[in-house]
Here is the input.
Amino acid sequence: MKKSNIYSPGSQRKINPNWFTARVHMKDVSSTIKSKEQGIYHVYFHNGAKTKLHQHNGNQILIATKGVGSLEIFRRYGKSKSNFKIKRTDKINLKEGDTVYIPAKTLHTHGSINKKKTFSHIAINILPKKNSEYKTTWYESDFKSNVTKIV
Here is the structure.
């Protein structure tokens, strides 16, 4: 059994800047506590940063820990894997303590809605099957109607 505190210094996960709209940093909680069934990350979105549009092959749970953020859900139109139309179907504001469940293969984005404050959440990425890999597909989009490529 391993113990960790989400606010103490710990293992930082390397961030691919192509997956976010601005500055983000992430603490890898799962590696600290040796979790094998899910990836657990404490993610900090600075000054209005958010994820680019994406979907996961497994379910995800977000738990807001600081500030105000949002989760936006999109529907895709078209058969192309990398160039298709989208429409936002839901927007959920998140404040400290709010918890949301995102089913696998749900096209979405999440992050800060305040350009001057940090929003953070814990992301729990649930592996689709035992000993499988959790995969995320990231997209370049205008967050309104068009996806232009896989990032």
In short: The first strand starts at residue 24 and ends at 28. The chain has one domain: 17-150.
